[in-house]
Amino acid sequence: MALDIDRYSSIDSPISRWDPRFKIFALGILIISIALLKTIPVAITALAIAAVIIGMSALPLHFISHGLSFILVFLVPFFFIMPFSYPGEAAFRVLGLPFAWEGLRYATLIFTKALAIVLVSFSIFGSSRFDVSMIALQKLKCPKIIVQMLLFTYRYTYVFLEEMHRMHTSMHSRGFVAGTNAQTLRIYGNFIGTLLVRSFERTDRVYKAMLSKGYQGELHSMVKFKSSSPDILKGLIVIGLALALLLSDYGGIFTAAEQGWY
Amino acid sequence: MHISEGVLSAPVLITGFVGTAVLAAVTMRKMDLEEIPKISVITSVFFVSSLIHVPIGVTSVHLILNGLVGVILGWRAFPAVLVGLVLQAILFGHGGVTVIGVNCLMMGGGALMAYVVWQQRHHFSLKRKEMIFGALAGATGVGFSGIVLALALATTGEAFHAVAGAVLIAHIPIIIIEAGVVGACAEFLSRVKPEILAGQRPTPNPAGSADVAT
């Protein structure tokens, strides 16, 4: 399965050269500030900034679009639900349902912000090796246990995905067809049980091997972080942009028009 | 079964993060070194099996299984769900980064409730109690999450009241499916590898599996 988020991390770019500690911290602040935006023009500006950042990361287009296809499935329904469920006066009716422009505005805002945030998080985690990102998280005082569980889970996920595909193939070759009935549920229950037992026994062996090699609850890495002035400068620029977005959203120009379109 | 990025208001998001931090700190107390790989295994299986779709008529829903995580990991289910959601947000952009707190309260809270329900099996002497209480735990897990999701949407604004109602209705078939799958899975595990389940008492299983701490 070629799903690894870090499969293009070897591409050289201003983002991948950025010290991961500063990258995660600064872009993390940008993500939070985007999530707090309330007006569409500022959200579109944020989307443009996110597009520039992911453009700088030089990640291949098909990688980005593949990731976006997941999130679009979640977001597109909002355009159909919000305009028809928003309280207040309806502009007109479609097939007897009240259509409110305010609902459409809301859906647009949600869509723009979510898209911007996903692009930024792709540029964070797509541009460094996953283990390096995790060690950077640990350096940023993220709890050690959480970081280790993230690393283990990430590794195991792909192993188990393959295991599951194998089991699925064998199930289908024996004639299993999923249907809306109790038998399907029982078979899936047993399927997951088998997957659990197999995975559990496999990782038990891995764990014993790790113990015998001296694992003591900490992962040591050869990765050394080195920050220089460009790292700090990039960080300051991004944090400055994040603050500017928030200020123009809350303090300023579009506040009067918060309920409007622009 | 996610709240997407950009939907909820800031106070709801912050409440989510604070609640998650507190619950994570409480549920992770006295965690042993050897628990880390075990929790990670369950987290990835949970993650992978959410790709399984069960057909309902012309449409289909994917399994959520947070109840099963509670049945297997007990209180440690909460950090497991947290890790699963963080990875999902990073890898697939599912859900999103700022909503991790709220989503974790929703899913992880369901897992904890499921564990509480699962533990009640010790008070009964029924024939297939792993099946029955597994099913109840599975239903509790998603049921709780559905209610929290509807509440989070409803408190965010009047605009979401209709969506919140739709969410509650949409959860009814999911609850039935989860109950069936988790019940079958719990019974399977109790026969094949009972030491994997949370809160097992040593007396009912005299044969084998004596050296495993639960």
How far is it from the N-terminal to the C-terminal residue of chain A, by CA?
44 Å
Largest interface: A-B, 74 and 73 residues
In percent, how helical is the residue content of chain B?
55-70%
Uncertain runs of chain B are 205-214
Structural class based on helices, strands and sheet pairing of chain A: mainly alpha
Topology order of chain A in helix (H) and strand (E) letters: HHHHEEHHHHH
Q: How many helices of chain A in DSSP terms?
A: 9
CATH architecture descriptor name of chain B? Orthogonal Bundle
How many β-strand stretches of chain A?
A: 2
Quickly name the level 1 CATH class of chain B.
Answer: Mainly Alpha
The gyration radius over C-alpha positions of chain B equals 17 Å
Instruction: Tell me the major beta sheet of chain A.
Output: 2 strands, antiparallel
Oligomer: heterodimer
For this structure, the CATH topology of chain B is Arp2/3 complex 21 kDa subunit ARPC3
Mean pLDDT, all residues of chain B = 82
Structural summary, described in words:
The complex is a heterodimer of chains A (262) and B (214). Chain A has 262 residues and is an all-alpha fold. Chain A folds into 2 domains: 14-139 and 225-257, no CATH class; 144-212, no CATH class. Helices cover 69% and strands 2% of the residues of chain A. Chain A is built from 9 helices and 2 strands. Chain A has helices at residues 14-17, 20-35, 40-56, 61-85, 101-125, 130-139, 144-173, 182-212, 229-250; strands spanning 92-94, 97-99. In chain A, strand 1 (92-94) and strand 2 (97-99) form a beta hairpin. Chain A is flat, with a radius of gyration of 23 Å. Chain A starts with 13 loop residues before the first helix and ends in a 12-residue tail after the last helix. The mean pLDDT of chain A is 82. Chain B has 214 residues and is mostly helical. Chain B has a single domain (10-196), classed as Arp2/3 complex 21 kDa subunit ARPC3, CATH 1.10.1760.20. Chain B has 7 helices and 2 strands; from the N terminus they run ααββααααα. Chain B has helices at residues 10-27, 35-49, 66-73, 77-92, 100-119, 129-156, 161-192; strands spanning 53-56, 59-62. Chain B has a two-stranded antiparallel ribbon. At the A-B interface, helix 2, helix 4, helix 5, helix 7 and helix 8 of A face helix 1, helix 2, strand 1, helix 4 and helix 7 of B.
